[in-house]
Input
Amino acid sequence: MMMMMYVPFATPEGKTVGSYNDLVDQVYYGNYDAVVGDVTIVANRSLYVDFTLPYTESGVSMLVPIRDNKKKNAMVFLHPLTPTLWATSACFFVLIGFLVWVLEHRINEDFSGPPGSSNRHQLLVLLLNHGVCSSGESGEQFSRFLVIIWCFVVLILT
Output
């Protein structure tokens, strides 16, 4: 294990003994082995001592607040939902509704008749309650599977 001693380049009162050039000169004269600090690499200093590569980029930067000109509203959560996504969701909603009707209209008396003759709210009731209220026939099993997948997709979108 190498023993090291850190010696500040300052007087006991806390005032600096000299400039950065003086500090680099002390390393050159052998009074110090190394310097740890924010010593800038310049041509005249590099003639006397070796520098390691800096671990950060050099330059000047500022951190300033910016004004947000965007209006803030409560519907900000809708911005990621593009019109294409809305159209795709609507198409799949109609497709799933049609597939459930095809599977259920022979078994379930609420869905008898052509697709347009059923009340619109029956489709919503089916989509919300189908998994709870069914007798377990094979057509209903596949309908239940479709509704579960659709509800999962709706939960992901929202």
Notes: Helices lie at 20-29, 43-46, 83-104, 120-129, 138-157. The chain has two domains: 1-64, 76-157. The chain has a mean pLDDT of 75.
